[in-house]
Amino acid sequence: MTELAAAGALPKPKRDILPVLLPVILALAMAPLIGSGSSWVTLTVASLAMGMMIFIMASGLTLVFGLMDVLNFGHGAFIAVGAYVATLVLLPLAPYVQADSLLTNLAVLAPAALLSMAVSGALGLVVERVLILPVYGQHLKQILMTTGGLIVAEQALYALWGPQIIPLPLPTSLRGSFIIGDIAIAKYRLLAMLVGLVVFAGIQLVLNRTKIGLLIRAGVENREMVEALGYRIRRLFLGVFMVGSGLAGLGGVMWALYREQVHASMGNDLTVLVFIVVIIGGLGSIGGCFIGALLVAMVANYGGFLVPKLALVSNILLMVAILMWRPRGLYAVTSR
Amino acid sequence: MMILSGDPPRSRVLSVLLVVIIAALAITPLIFPGAKAMNVATKICIFAALVASYDLLLGYTGSVSFAHTMFYGIGSYAIAIALYSMGPTWAAVATGVAVGLPLAMLLALVIGLFSLRVEAIFFAMITLAVASAFLVLASQLSWLTGGEDGRSFQLPELLRPGTVLISKGVLGFELNGRVLTYYLIFTGSAAMILALLRVVNSPFGRVLQAIRENRFRAEALGFRTVFHLTYANCLAALVAASAGMLNALWLRYAGPDTSLSFSIMLDILLMVVIGGMGTIYGAIIGATIFILAQNYLQALMGAASNAAADAGLPLLPGLLHPDRWLLWLGLLFIASVYFFPTGVVGRLRNAGRKPS
Questions:
Q1: Beta carbons of A28 and A250 less than 8 angstroms apart
Q2: What would the pLDDT profile of A252-285 be if each residue is shown by its tens digit?
Q3: ipTM of this model?
Q4: Which residues of A are less than 8 Å from B133 in CB distance?
Q5: Which CATH number does A37-325 carry?
C-alpha cells in the first residue's frame, strides 16, 4: 500500500503539448489561404500520407541516435535496398499486382513489404557489426564509415540492378481515389496513412508498455546507468538498429510505390528529408519525429500549392524556424 | 622551409612522391599537350586545393561539412554568370570574384554561427540539408543559373585556346591561351595550398587542433571555440569558392553536375581520407590517386569486366563494370578509415619511424 501511495504522490510529468498542436494549427491556419475546401482536404490527406511515410523511414534513425549516440549517414541505403527488394517480389508477380482485387493485391504487397523489411534488417545487422562496431563512440569516424557504406551500397545496387530507373506500378485496386462530393482522396494515401499509424502505435506500445521499451527509454536517457544495472545494452542496441533498418526498408517500399519507380539515388534524396525530420523532432524522440515528419510534409504540400517556388527551400526554412524556437528540436530527449 | 611554413613532409618517400607529382603537373602542358592529359592535370590541381581546404575543416577541426561543394559551386557560378552576362572581359572576371567570395564567406558565416555551437553531428546534418537545398535552388532558378543545363561562357581574349602567345617554332611547344589558363590554375592552386599550410601551422591552427582533440578543454583554456570554428569554416569556404572559380575558368562552363552535385562532395571526402586527414599534403596525394583512378582505372576495369564476362562468371562483370569504380574506392575508403585513419601520408610518415 505504501508503495502505491508513494507512486501516487509523485508529481505528474509535465506534458509538453505545444508541439503536438503545431501541425493542427498549421493545417487550420492554411485553410483560409488555400480557399477551396476540397483542395484543402486533398492537400491535408496528401501531407498526412507523406508524413507517415517519412516518419516510418526516420523513426529508426532517431531511436538509434538517441540510444547509442550513433548517427547513421547511410540510413538512406536501407531505404533504397528495401525498395529494390520489393521489386524482386512485385515484378515477377505482376499479374497478381495488376489483378483488380484488393485481397490479391495485398496478398502480394504484404510479403513484398515483409521481405524488404527482413532484408534491410539483416543488412542492418551486417552494417552494425562491420561498420559501426569498430568505430563505436567516435563521431567523426562514424560519419565517415557510414557515408562510405552509403557509397558502397548505392554502387552495389547499381551493379546488381543496373543504373536505370525501374518502374513499379501501383496495384490496380489501390489506384484512383475515393470521391466524396467534390473531395478526392487517393486510395494509396489512405493505405500509407494506415500503415504509418500502425507503425507509430506499435512503436509507442513497445516503448511504453513493455520491458524492452522501458530499457530502451532508460538507455536513451542514461546509457551508463542501464549498463550499471546489468543490462547488455549493446545487444539491445543491435536489435533497435535492425528494427530501425527494417522500418527504413518498409518506408522505401512505400515511397517507391508512391512514386511508382525505384532508383538507387532515392536513398540519397530521402536521407536529407529524414535528417531534417529528425533534427526538427529532437534527436532521439519518437513523438518529435512523428510531428516533425508531419510538419515537413505539410510545409511541402501546402507550400507547393501556394508558392511553388518556395517549396524548394521550405524544409530548410521550417528547420530554421523550429530551431530558433527550440534549439534542440521539438522534444529534447537526450542530454547530449 | 619558409615557404612550407616549417611543416615539411617529414618522410623521404612522401617528399619524393610530392616532388614527382608537382613536377609532373608543372610540365604537363609541355610534354602531354593532349586534351585528356591537360584535363586530368587541371583537375588534380583544382581538387588538390579544394580537398586541402576541406582538410582544414575535417582534419584540423574535426567537423564534417557536407556543404563544401556548395561553396565550390558558388565560386563556379559566380564566374560563369558574370562572364555570361557581362561578356568576356576581365572586368567580368573581377566582378565574379568580387561577388562570389563575399557570398561564400557570408553563407559560411551564417551556417557556422548557426550550427557550430553544438555537436559535430549537428553541423554535418545541417550542412547536408543546406547544400541539398542550394543544389535544388541552383537547378531551378534557370533565369540566373541556366538550370540543369548550366551556363557556358566565353573567356577573355588572353585565355582562349586560339590565342597564340609564342608559336611552336620558338620554344618547341606552343604557348597559347589554354596553356596560360593552365598555369594560372596551377599557380593559383599552389598558392592556396601553401596559404592553407601557413594557416594550419599558425597559432590559430594549433587552437583548431586543440578543439579537435578536446573541445571542452580548449574552451576551458579560454579560447572562444565557436569563433575559431566559424573562422575556419569561412576560410575553407573562401578557398573552395576560389577553386570553383578556377574550375569554371578551365571548363568555360558551370552547371549543377560539375560543381554542386553530392557526388563531388563524396569524391572530396574520399580524397581527403585516402590521402590523409589533418596533413594538407594528403590533399595532393589523395586528389592525384583519386583522379588518376577515375580517369585510368576505368579502362582497366572495363578490360577485367569483359574478361569476366567472357569467362562466364556471374555477378563479376557487373561489379567490375567501368562505371562501378566508385564501389571499389568506397571499399578502399572504409578500409582506410578503419585501418589507416591517417591515410597515405600518415602511413608514410610512420613507416620511417621505429615502432616504440
A1: no
A2: 999 999 988 898 888 888 888 898 898 888 888 8
A3: 0.80
A4: 312-313, 315-316
A5: 1.10.3470
